[in-house]
Amino acid sequence: MRSLALLLCLAQLCSCRSVPLGPALAYRQPNCDDPETEQAALAAVDYINSHMLQGYKHTLNQIDKVKVWPRRPMGEVFELEIDTLETTCHVLDPTPLANCSVRQLVEHAVEGDCDFRVLKQDGQFSVLFAKCDSSPDSAEDVRRLCPGCPLLAPLNDTKVVHAVDVALTAFNAQSNGSYFRLLEVSRAQLVPLPPSTYVEFAVAATDCAAKDVTDPAKCNLLAEKQYGFCKATLTEKIGGEDVAVTCTVFQTQPLLPQPQPEGPDVVTVDPGADPAVPVPSPPDVPVASLVVGPMVVTVPKALLPGHRTHYDLRHAFTGAASVESASGEAVHVEKGPTVVQPGIAVVPDPVLRPCPGRIRYFKV
Length: 364
What we know:
Elements: H1 2-18, H2 35-51, E1 56-70, E2 76-90, E3 110-121, E4 124-136, H3 139-145, H4 158-174, E5 178-191, E6 196-209, E7 227-237, E8 240-249, E9 267-268, E10 322-323
Antiparallel strand pairs: 1-2, 2-3, 3-4, 5-6, 6-7, 7-8, 9-10
């Protein structure tokens, strides 16, 4: 009997070891400069610019890494690391990105560093996850290239605030149309010679006529938003100051209904919930096939730049109000180690695939 029991136990152990662990999800690593990879990266950049709430549009500078995962039941997910550069076009400026100039190093360039997951399905690219931050070039690098070039100044510097106030007052005094109200101070530099303050700021039209305003606090923004972008220099002189300001007013932007997530699978995240607590994942779905969906948010006032010198891309995707994938499935993905199962190779092709890719403008 003991021998029979021992044989039965051994048989059960063998049968357990022979049970397959299931197929692993293998990824591929295309060239960082592959046209398909670049398409995914450009979709990511479009996502940045369409979701930014302040500051300037960004453009693609370099693709650092790429992995492409199969997505169930169909499609592929491009996992990308990309570098961007700030342009001179404000996010409210309707100028196409292709026509926007990249801000040069001597102008104190700003670089973005982003992680994206981009779904390709039926030939279309859509962003599933976005995480970015940005930082200006170092003062040492700017001074090395151009010793006399001004550096970025804090957006709440008293000289900056004063220059914006004087410039906007001068613009409204010359206007024959609506009274414009300040939306944001976008960029500022303190110029040593001649002593002056250079500022760039965004404005919006109100329902008041500029010539008739007595109390700006009673002026309300128009329902069909009309924005403008101004550049001004306030020069200090003995016994006074001079201001030169130019503003470009863009066409009105009618209110568009915002698409609302539909279906029972949409997960709403409580803004007061602990961000360290993950959203539950659907059962029986491999982690590698899960994706997090687009995050459209309003930047809390606490995150708006005060002492900062630029609008960090980090604030463009902070505090998600909803998490939803492009297919309607609400899921959460946690990055973890790739699990290699027996007999299944989860490795990239042996063909040499150079990454990072080419630098399109310059490295900050």
